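In the previous chapter we treated chains in isolation. Here, by contrast, the input contains two separate entities that must be folded as one system, with a combined length of 670 residues.
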Amino acid sequence: MSSLRDRGGPAQPLLSVAGLRKYFPLRGPLGNTNAHVQAVDGISFNVMKGETLGVVGESGCGKSTTARLLMHLIKPDAGDIVLDGDPIGHGGITPRELRRDVQMVFQDSYASLNPRHTASAEIAFGLKVHGMKSGQAKEHAHAALRLVGLDPNLFGDRYPHEMSGGQRQRVNVARGIALNPRLLILDESVSALDKSVQAQVLNLLADLKERLNLTYVFISHDLNVVRHVADRVLVMYLGKIFEIGPAGDIYANAAHPYTKALLASRLSMDPAHRVTAAPLTGDPPNPVRPPSGCRFRTRCALAETICATREPPLNDIAVAHQVACHAVTPGSGHSQAGGIANAA
Amino acid sequence: MPPEPLVEVDNLSVRFVNRDIDIQVVTDVSFQVDTGEVLCLLGESGSGKTVTMRALLRLLPPHARIGGRIRLAGHDIAAMTERALEAVRGPVAAMIFQEPMTALDPVFTIGTQIAETIVAHEHVSWREARKRALDLLEMVQIPSAARRLDAFPHELSGGLRQRAMIALALSCRPALLLADEPTTALDATVQIQILLLLRSLQQELGMATIFVTHDIGVACEVADRIAVMYAGRFVETGPVAAIIQRPAHPYTAGLLHSTVQVDSRGARLASITGYPPDLTLMPPGCGFAPRCQYRQSDCDAAMPDLTAVAPGRMARCPRPLLAVAG
């Protein structure tokens, strides 16, 4: 069935994003807008068919805003989203048609379920919205529950408060896959779960991906989890893409100083070899007034004059591996340009 | 005669009782912490780790019933009046929390809050207390500390707020620091900064620390010993390195295997089946038995005891994964 839907062939990205931008206005005491949070600032990337694209970054980097923009839960200020050749708006498909093919699972399993819906009613609701008859929707909902490992006879009639966090997140996943989408956006979907349950849900997501021919955008702050699931990784900082590339490349040969620092901030998991020095000082700056030029320069050990005056573009440094950093871009004017990429 | 340990807890139990509920949340917990030692209470949500720590200072809601014996630096906590406890909270043991925004008062500056605490406990002049507050902010490595004394909590970033809360906790030079998931809400690059700060302060000041966390990675960075909790009980205790290397209790082993590590790419995670237990419906035997892959009939008959499995190590399992060392 998915092959019928595959219009552009395997080489065409399932989702293509160009120049996506979202600024949130900050209102002053009189309701006037005096500043903007630059949540997502002109990002472009592709999600290929069948892959898992990991998105990492710290709080305020724009990863969740990006997820919501992809679903058209919020309207972008600028930029285009193209789903397998069909643009959203501009005479292409509508946001509602987009959401049939793109579904999302959130972090908070409790807040994202209607407390007055039983598990099967919750799943059936979306199916009915998209035109399915009531009886058929219920049957579909039960099938979706079985797919996520919940017995519909046991869990179908339970309300959210009657389930554990792991069970509720399974219901959220079931709701996400019930419409038979092509792309599932997982926004910190396993982050709030206890480790023992997190492992179960990660295994479930791996099974479903294979079984239902899904593509994932997997957003997480946990670099080890992203390493576990992702084929490609996208690194964000203050609304910009800093680095994107194959997961193996990024984890073994990160080129951007921020990616390196992020990876070096991971805990050792070994009491005999503890982390001895923090790779970065301070917190990420305020996204209302991001630094000029490269937004990382205020925390970067390699920052030079060029970094404050010119924003580094996203450049290829290896096959399918792009980095936005003057220090690794030959000819940028940075004193280390050209050297660091090979040295790493 | 060896000196008395700084913290001595015997057979601690906590029940939450009111008209509708009667739940045993902590059962039969005993441990000691020596001066300068770091103990991590490791467990998942609902395992009783935070309640255990809060019981040490009786920071629990009124419907909590605390049983057992708690001694902090010679004080019998259970027998003390509220008034007497005030003298213990601060100079003997101070606490830091996960969310500094709720632990700091939003309407007073950082400097005022720290100085106020020092004045209340040590009866020094306001001027002297302000000076100590500045020293404390410098000690927790807050940049431009003099300026930050006059900042309100909302004017600081998450990492700085956490540092300010640590400064507040250290203001009365406590012998014991109680840390309740102090880095859980922080970003990775900030978390490691705060962990390193806590580690160096703890060594510098010779403080004992009890650190509550759900994250084995955090325990590996800071702990000397860990106590793994499940359903309100200790299921395994011992030195952190030994436990990480060879866990004795099946739950600890499961927790380690289900934690995504660096090199598990694409492989299936060995998860623990089932879900965390419902404390209102606990079976008579081992609380972990329903999820345990090594379960046998005797596991359901009675709660196993916490017994020695190696020098300095205990586990609550009749068949620990670690053979008893000769």
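Chain B has a mean pLDDT of 92. The CA atoms of residues 79 and 184 of chain B lie 33 Å apart. Compare these points with the single-chain example from earlier in the chapter.
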